[in-house]
Structures are given as C-alpha cells and as structure tokens.
Amino acid sequence: MTPSFAYFRGLLMAAVLASVLTACASLPPPTAELAAAQQAVVTASDADADQYAARDIANAREALSRAQAAMAEGRDADARKFALAASADAELAGARSEQARLTAQVAQRRAEITELQRRLGQEDRR
C-alpha cells in the first residue's frame, strides 16, 4: 500500500508543530531585556528620579536586582518578567521626574509674569 499525500501532510504538520514547541520552550536568555532595564534605570536616575519619583525608581532598582539574580540562577522566565517590570518602573519614574521638572518651570515662569505685571502696574501709576 502506497502512503497518501494526506499521510505525508500530517507528518509534515507534526514535525512543524514539534519544532515550534521546541523553539518556544528554549527562548534565549533575556539579555536584551536586562540591558534595556539597566539603561532605563540609568536614564531615570539622570532625570533626577531620586528626587522627584523616589518610590518608582526604588521599585525599578529592586526589580532590576531581582532580574539579575534570576538570570544568575538560570531562571530566564523570572529574569525576563523582572527586567520588563524594572523597565516599566524606570520609565514611569523618568516621566514623573520630567513632569515635576516642567511643573516647576511653569510655576517659575508664572511667578516671573506676575512680577513683570506688578512692575508694569507701578510704572503706569507714575
């Protein structure tokens, strides 16, 4: 008896499925995620996150530390999870820092405008 095309197609699909499952099971270590998290923490720190978003940058550093420990222990899935959390917390810290800095600049400009208006009002009375 000669095997049919359907038989070979079934074998081919089984082989493809097996290789996909093998590829998913063996994801590479999360080195890129870890590097991105480290860079995000540095960027947030450079944006004065310690002053304006202390809790968020502390959370980012803690998650980064956990990611590094998990990576060292070979727990790649946990390392990836913690690295992504560290990146998110660091980006939030950076955004909150930027918001605080811009809010302070707006307040300073408003104070300058108020002072100029006061001076102009005094000059009109002379």
TrEMBL record:
Q: What is this protein called?
A: DUF4398 domain-containing protein
Highest taxon of the lineage: Bacteria
Q: Does the keyword Transferase apply?
A: no
Coiled-coil regions listed in the entry = 57-119
Q: Per its UniProt record, what InterPro entries does this chain match?
A: DUF4398
Q: Which UniProt keywords apply?
A: Coiled coil, Signal
As given in the record, the signal peptide range reads: 1-25
* Segments crossing the lipid bilayer: none
Ranges where the DUF4398 domain occurs: 32-108
